[in-house]
Amino acid sequence: MATQIPKYLKCVFTEINAGRYRTVRHYKPKEGITNNGLFSDLINVSNNRAFAKSNPEFWVKCKKGKKWDYPLTGLFKTEIDNVFKGDLYHKAHLLIMHFSSDYTTITAYLFPDFYTRNLEPLLSQIIH
Predict the structure, then answer these.
(1) Considering all CA atoms of the chain, what is the largest pairwise distance in Å, rounded to the nearest integer?
(2) pTM for this one?
């Protein structure tokens, strides 16, 4: 019997400044829902520079006006290549991001009002 996965929002982002910066990539939504207040029209994914004890692989920021806001979440490795997990608002919402092999496209899965550490059932059903 398959595990019932909670409702999620899906959004596909594409890179807008390929090769312009060494440690930061900017993405805009290609398709999906971004106007729910959790994402802006542009997101910034930057490499971790070891300033936090949590030590994620990447940091995700949203654009607020003309400036990039504080990090929304850190992205941590999962057991699947190019798939990372994070949480929003102190584990109120689960965020799973699947990067393409060349990191030019991100498929983001946001699980509102849901968080779990056991990602295996979710990943097996949403990542193909």
Answers:
(1) 49
(2) 0.85
Structure tokens at 81: 């290549």
Tally Cβ neighbours within 10 Å of residue 11.
21
Q: What digits encode the pLDDT tens for the residues 13-72?
A: 999 987 777 788 989 888 666 555 566 678 889 888 777 777 889 999 888 888 888 888
Report the Cα 95 to chain-centroid distance in Å. 6
The whole-angstrom separation of Cα 58 and Cα 4 is: 29
End-to-end, the C-alpha distance of the chain in Å comes to 19
Q: Select from 57, 61, 55 the least CA-distant residue to 73.
A: 61
Q: Per-residue confidence at 1, pLDDT binned at 50, 70, 90?
A: very low
What string of H, E and C letters represents the secondary structure of the chain? CCCCCCCCEEEEEEECCCCCCCCEEEEEEEEECCCCCCCCCCEEEEECCCCCCCCCCEEEEEEECCEECCCCEEEEECCCCCEEEEEECCCCEEEEEEECCCCCEEEEEEECCCCCCCCHHHHHHHCC
